Amino acid sequence: MQYLFVGAGQAGTQIVDQIFAHDNIDLRAEALAFNSTIQDLERLDNIPQDRWYGVSESDGLVSGTVRGFEERVTGGFGQTPTKADRVMRRNEGEVHRVLDEVYEGLEADPSTLQYAFVFLGFGGGTGCGIAPHLAREIRSYASSEMDIVSVGVLPNTKLVNQGAQMDNDEDNPVEKQIQQCENTVFGLDNLEQEVESIMLVDNQRLALDVAESNEYSDYNRYVADAFLDIVLGAERERTDDALDVQMMDVDLQDLIRYIDGDGFRAGYATLGRGVRQTESLLGYLLPGPFGRQPIQETGLIADSIDKQTIDEFSPSDATSAVAVAQAPGWCWDDKEVSVGSVESELGYYCKNVNAGWAVTKRNLASVTTAFGFDREDIDRIAQIERIAEREGTA
User: Fold this and answer.
1) pLDDT digits over 220-251, tens only?
2) For the chain, which residues make up each domain, given as ranges?
3) Which residues of 82-105 are buried (b: 16+ CB within 10 A; e: fewer)?
4) Which CATH number is associated with domain 239-377?
5) For the whole model, what pTM was predicted?
6) Which of 32, 213, 277, 327 shows the greatest Cβ crowding within 10 Å of its Cβ?
């Protein structure tokens, strides 16, 4: 097992579940789901129950296969990450027990774990409360040299931004958004000490039209596809050495190097994906060149930038950028797609860029980009911090 995908809380487990809907991802990766609400775990379609772990205030981490699991995992932490944080502090050794169970079942050596990915929602109580502990304990269990990347979902703050007023209703959506901002700051401050990079997904972009063809039914799937393409794309797809092209390749270590932090705290990144069909209906019916469609490479690149996973995105504020382009072999042969063009476009925004390529058997061409930032240069985080600070001093 080379990769460990860990979902923390509702948002995190849902994204990991979407990732494991992809064929063959489980051949080199293992999924774990940690949540304090059994109803959310029961909604998972692609993570088996023996990889569920309930987070219980009374019992710590509870395996999904334990008798009485439903009675022992009785509810969440009420949008209060400090409660989840306290539970994990009392039960940190339990994470090693969980990993022992996983590796013994796989008959694998923990030293084979090269990368871990921790997914969470910053606005809730469970995800941002437990994720820093999970990251720290995974590293201490496997290797201090391993790389851990987190994918975190930022809350929607549109009501607060629009100046909507609070009332005395405890379920008031404005008050809820303010609380989510406070949770986000808590989560970011703790998590960035434990991981190499934090990739940001913004619930404020839920209205994003993720594909012209409406290929993706929801935002989680868009995020899952973009993440797999940029993180595992160049490794997941087999490249064809016979192609008459001169291109660079990007592996996972290269990606992390371009978006990691300064060694003391994490770097930050956003994701975006542009995708086009390479075959018309005729191309599916007849072999060969029939039905092949022009790719419009510039449109792919533009879409991947326009559809970044964070609101108020400004590529010119980025410190680095990395991309993976994927297309069928004929696209590379016919120069329909060029890594040089992708790299040149990224270089317009920042100097530290890299681009990789992969040949895919799918009838899709895609360009997936990740832009690296310092925390201080991300407007959305600054906006969330201002909301949290304003409420804290009110």
Assistant:
1) 888 888 888 877 765 555 445 555 444 456 77
2) 3-195, 239-377
3) ebbbebbeebbebbeebbeebbee
4) 3.30.1330.20
5) 0.89
6) 327
